[in-house]
Amino acid sequence: AEVEEILKRIQAHRGVIATMVINAEGIPIRTTLDNSTTVQYAGLLHQLTMKARSTVRDIDPQNDLTFLRIRSKKHEIMIIPGNISIKITIELYVL
Amino acid sequence: IGHPEIFPLVFTTKTQEIFNCRVDEDVTEENCFKLFKKEDIIQDLKTRAAVSDFHPIKNVVLEYPGEELLVVFDAKFQYGQNFYLVASEEAKENLLKPPETTEEKEEETREETLEVHPYKRPVHKPWVSLGSEKEVEEESVKDTVTKIKYMISRVRRKFGAPITFTDKNASHVKDSYVECTSYEDKTFSIKMLEKDVGLQMVPKVREASTQTKWTYPKNAATQYFPRQFSNEEKEECLSSEKLKEFLTSVHLRMEIALQQNEIMNAFYDDWKALAEDESSSGGKPDVYLKAYQSFTDLRYLKDRTISCICWHPTIYGIISVSARERLSYEEQVNLSDKSLLQQSVILFWSFFDPIHPQLMLECPEDICCFQFSPSDPNIIIGGCINGQVVLWDISQHEEKLQNAKTAADEINMTAVNTVNASVLNILQYNYMSGVKRGKMRTQVSGEEWVKRYCAVSSIQYSHKKPVTDIHWLPGYSEENQMGATFGNRAEGCLQLVTCSPDCSILFWDIPVTKLPEQPSSEKLKEEEIFNMPLDVPDTLRHVELCWKPLLKINLCESDTNTEYGPVRISLRELHYHYKTSEKVQSLNTLEVPAKDSPYTEMSTPSSKNLKALESISTGFFVGTEDGEIVYSEWKMEIDSDSAKPHTQKYTLHTETITTLQRSPFFKDIVLSIGGRKFAIWKEGVTNGLILQSSCSAGRYTAGQWSLTRPGVFFIGRDDGNIDIWDLLKKTHEPSHFQNVSESMITFISPCIASPKQHFLAVSDDLGILHVLEICQTLSHASGNEHANVFDYFEREVKYLKYCEQEFQEYQEFQAKTELK
Lengths: 95, 820
Description:
The complex is a heterodimer.
Chain A: H1 2-11, E1 16-23, E2 28-31, H2 35-59, E3 68-71, E4 75-81, E5 85-92
Antiparallel strand pairs in A: 1-2, 1-5, 3-4, 4-5
Chain B: E1 6-9, H1 13-19, E2 33-37, H2 38-48, H3 58-63, E3 68-73, E4 83-86, H4 89-96, H5 99-112, H6 132-139, H7 231-239, H8 241-263, H9 270-281, E5 289-295, E6 304-311, E7 318-325, H10 329-333, E8 345-350, E9 359-362, E10 367-372, E11 379-384, E12 389-393, H11 398-402, H12 404-413, H13 422-428, E13 449-451, E14 455-457, E15 469-472, E16 477-479, E17 485-487, E18 495-500, E19 504-509, H14 520-526, E20 544-547, E21 551-554, E22 566-571, E23 619-624, E24 628-633, E25 648-651, E26 657-662, E27 669-674, E28 677-682, E29 691-692, E30 700-705, E31 712-717, E32 721-726, E33 736-739, E34 745-752, E35 758-764, E36 769-774, H15 776-779, H16 785-819
Parallel strand pairs in B: 9-13, 14-20
Antiparallel strand pairs in B: 1-4, 2-3, 3-4, 5-36, 6-7, 7-8, 8-9, 10-11, 11-12, 12-14, 15-18, 16-17, 18-19, 19-21, 22-23, 23-24, 24-25, 26-27, 27-28, 28-29, 30-31, 31-32, 32-33, 34-35, 35-36
C-alpha cells in the first residue's frame, strides 16, 4: 500500500507522463504505460543504467550511481537505480 | 702358463710317499716336474676318498683328457701351495719343454738391465717420400715467364740542352685548349681470352598469395521476446519488503528532481537564446525589401488597377491578380454607367515567365476580390463589382501551372499567332501528358489558357453592390439555413462568406462540384443543371446563374436604425488550420432581425454526422464604408426576445476601411487600416483600442500582417511607399519604409514560398505587380518575439483598464464635488 501511494504521488506530479518500476534483471514490475512500450523502455534503459553504473564504479569503486537523467528534445527520462530495482519516470515539457 | 689350468695342491707326506714325490728327495727345485698317471690318481681317490689330497680337484682329474698329469713342485710357493697341478696338456707341454729356454732368457735379461747402455749415435736413415713434396711444390711461387729487360739509351748531348719556349695564341686553337691526349697503344693491350668469372645460380623466387573465403556463420536475424512476469509474480514483487525499502529511500530524490524541473524550464537552450539576443540587439540590421520581380501585362492590365492579389497556396511561384477598372471615387459610387470595354480577367503569373501570364480566368464582371480555396487550391471564388459571386475550377490547368517553368521556354519559342487556331494551341502544349480530355479551350490570343468560370451566383440573390470582401469558412464549421453552426465537416472548405456595402453579409455554399464517391444519379437529383456552355468540361457540376446564398445577415441595428455598409469582414475562425478550437465564450447574441429574403433550398450538403457546435465563437469584425468598425455575432437563438443587442462600434477612421485583418499569431488582435490612420484592436476589449497611429501625411491604402513575425505589419500608401511597422521597436512611426512604385498601392500580400524565401506581393494602381523579397531580419522571428508582442498587448489592455478606472474615479470625484 505504501508502495502504491508513493508511485501514485510521483505519477501525479505535473508533467509526468509515465512511471515504471523495473527489477534488477530488467523485467518490468509495475508500469503505467502499455506493455509493448514498457518492454521497450525497460530493455533499453536497463542496459544504459547498468553501463552508467559500471562507469561510475570503474572510476571510483567507492562511488555509486544515484540518479540518471536523460534529457531529449521532447522528454526527460529520470532513472534511479537501486539494488534490486530501478524506477523510471518520463516527463514531458513543451517549450 | 695360465692360471685356470693351475691348481695348487697340498701334498701330505703320505701322498708324497705314494706317488714318489717326496720333497727334496724325488722332487727338487730344479727337477720339479713329476708326471702322475691318471689311473693312479683315480685309485688313490677311491681308496682314500675324502682324505685324499686330490679330492678338491677330483673333477679336473676325471675330465683330464690325457693319461699323465703333471704336477709341479712349487718351492717358492708361487701359487700358494707347495705343489700344483697343471690341468691341460698344452700347459703341460709348455711347462715341460720350453721352460728351459725361458729360463735361459730370463737369466739373460736379468743380466742386461744391470748394465748402463752405451751411447749410440742416431743412424742416418734414408728419407721415405710420403707425398708431401708435391704439395710444397705447388705452393711455392716461381716465375713462369722470364723477366723482360729493357734498356733505354739516349745520346748524352741531348740531355740538358737549352730549351726555347714559343708562344701560341690560345684563341687560334680551337677551343682555346691544347693538350696531349692519351691514346691507347695497341701493342700493349692484352686480349683477354679467358676470364675467371664467378657465377651463382639462384632459383627463381616468386611470391604469390591467395585468400580463401572463410565462411563463418553470422546471425542474420534474431527473434526474441521479452521476459515478463506473470501477474502473481508482479504482485509478489510489489509486496516484497525490499521494494518498499527501495521506494521509500528513492522517492525523495525523484520528487526533488521533478520539482527542479517544475521550477525551471529544463528544455531552455541557453546557447540558442544567447545567439538570438545578439542578432536582434546588436547593431542596425539591414532591413529592406528586395525587388524580386514585377509583372505586368499590356493587354489586360492597360488602364486597369489591380484590386486583389492572391498567392497560389501550394504551387511555388504562382501568383494571381485580379484587374479592375480604374475608377475615380464618383464613378465608384455610381456603377451603373460603367462600360465594359475590356474583358476582365484574373491573371496567373509565374515567377519563371514574367512576360506571359500562365492562365487567365474569365470573369463576367470586374472582380473586386477573390480567394483560393484552402482545401482545394483549384477552386477559386471571386466577388464581382456588380455583387455576383463567381466560381472557377482550374483543376485541369493545375499541371500546367506546376510545369510553368518549362512552359516558359515553350512559349518563347512559338510565334504569336492570333488566328483562332485551337489546334495550334493543342500542338503547342502537347508535351503535357496530364490533359484529361483533349478538349477545345476558348482562347483569346492563341497563347494563354483562358478558363471560363464555372458558376456564377444569381443576380437576384446576390449583393446589390460590389462584393468587397470574400472569405472561405473553415471546414469544420458549417452553417445551415437556420443559422446554427455545425461542425466536423471534414471535407474541406465548402462555404464562404461575402460582404458588400449594401449592408448585408451573405453565406454561400459551394455548389457541389467534385464528389467522386457519390453516384451520379444522386447528384442529378440534388443539382439543378442548366445548359452548359460547350467549353466547360463536364467533369464539373456547375450551377449556372442559379446559385443562391444560404444565409443573409443584415447589418442593421433595430433600435437605432443605422445601417452599416460593410466593406471588410473578419471572422474569428478564419484561420485555415484545422485545429478545433473550442473556446467557450458566453457572448450575448445579436438581435438579428428577421431575414427578409427567402431562404431557398440550395444543394444540400452531404449530411454527415454533424453535431451542433455550441462553442465556436461567431464573433466578427466588420469594417464599413464610413470608416466604422463594428463587432458583433451572428448566433441566432430561437427565443430572440431575451437577447440583448451586443455590438460594438468604433469610429476611428474617417474614410473607407481598406483592410481589416486578424493577426496570424493572435486570434483576437485585429488590424484595421483606413484613411489616414490605422488601428489595432483586441477582440473582447471594448473600452478602447490597443494602438492607433497618428494621422499620417498620406493615406493608407493597403496593409497586411507579416506571416512570420508577430509584431510586424506592412502598410501601403497612396504615394507608392510601403511602411514596415515593428511593434517591438517603435510604435509611433514605421521602423522602415521603402518606395516601391509611383502610384498608389492597392494591395499587399505576403507569402512564405520556402523557408528561405519570403515574398511580398505589392500591386499598384498602374496594374503592375511587384514581387519583393523580404529580407531575413524581417522574416525570421526571434525566439521570444511572440511572448514579447503578447506582453505588449497585455500591457496595453491593462493600461486601457487603468485609464478607464481612473476616468471613473475622476467622474465620481467630480460628482462628489458637484454635490457639495
